[in-house]
Amino acid sequence: MTSTTEHPPATLTLDPLGPGFGARVSGLDLASATDAELAAVRAALVDRKVLFFRGQDLDEDGQIALGWRLGELTPSHPVVEGVDEAHPEIYAIDSADNGFADVWHTDVTFMPRPPLGSILRAVTLPESGGDTSWADGQLAYDSLSRPVRELVDQLTAMHDGNREFGYYLAQRRGGKGNVWEGETVTRLVPAEHPVIRVHPETGRKGIFVNPGFTSHIVGVSDAESRAILDLLYAHLTKPEHIVRHRWRAGDVAMWDNRSTAHYANRDYGTARRVMHRITLRGDRPVGPAGPVTA
User: Is 193 a known active-site residue?
Assistant: First the structure.
């Protein structure tokens, strides 16, 4: 992120969506924001975990420029090509090309270093439907009972992208994906991460498994794995842990991928829904017991 040492702190106007999770940011033009304002956005993102900005005027170039001011951008996706040759960082989520996200997930957890965060821009919206919800993994962890917290603190889980993207990599990309962390992706090797992730900036613990990519808990039986994951998924997605956003033209959402999961409603029939997403380079997840060793 651009240094702000020469700029005084900026104050954002936030409309909180819950006591500690989610907020709408008003009065800020992301395209012309100062370094100090974007530093405040970055701090608010860690604190509130998901932020919404109405009435923005960003195109592909503007979205990428914004991303680079907030962090280091990844390619669009480990497997899926960018929206076009000029914008390889943008992942187009297009319902006309089977671009749906109607399962709870955290972006790209099937890689050793999942993205730090995501910036999503509404491009084409249905007349109604297509809302997106986010779940707060930290709030969900805090509200677990102590015995369950002590259990899951010790566990690791496998995250596997083959179910969702293995066919795409093999059939549509000919077995050659994008360059991710300096290496061309030719196969999706499952990644092991702690079930509970310690946030690198705040030290808070949060649930870091998701139905989209987590295949199983390591070192327990299949039945135990299913039971533990089902418990965590049901708890993570309780209504009091969730905020929901109804999209409008010009909307931009940002979220901290290290502390949230999200779900996009697929309730708009044959209407088209197109969203453009960029992701910020992240680090290797660390749990209460430290990093997972291969």
Answer: no
Question: Structural domain tally of the chain?
Answer: 1
Q: What's the CA gap between 22 and 167, in Å, rounded?
A: 35
Give catalytic status of residue 216 as yes or no.
no
Domain harbouring 188, CATH code: 3.60.130.10
Do the domain assignments include residue 288?
Answer: no
Residue 270 maps to a domain: yes
Q: Which domain holds residue 176?
A: 13-282
Is 105 a residue of the active site? yes
Residue 221 lies in a domain: yes
pLDDT per residue as tens digits for the range 189-234: 999 999 999 999 999 999 999 999 999 999 999 999 999 999 999 9
Task: Find, among 214, 195, 210, the residue nearest to 286 by Cα.
Answer: 195
Quickly list DSSP for 241-291: GEEEE---TT-EEEEETTTEEEEE---STT---EEEEEEE-----EETTEE
- Give yes or no for residue 7 having a pLDDT over 70: no
Handedness of CA 227, 228, 232, 235 (dihedral sign): positive
The whole-number pLDDT of residue 3 equals 45
Kindly indicate the confidence band of residue 8, based on its pLDDT and cuts at 50, 70 and 90: low
Residue of 48, 121, 199, 262 marked active site? 262
pTM: 0.94
Q: Does the annotation count 277 as an active-site position?
A: yes
Q: Measuring CA to CA, which residue among 122, 105, 91, 205 is closest to residue 159?
A: 105
Catalytic site residue from 42, 77, 107, 121: 107
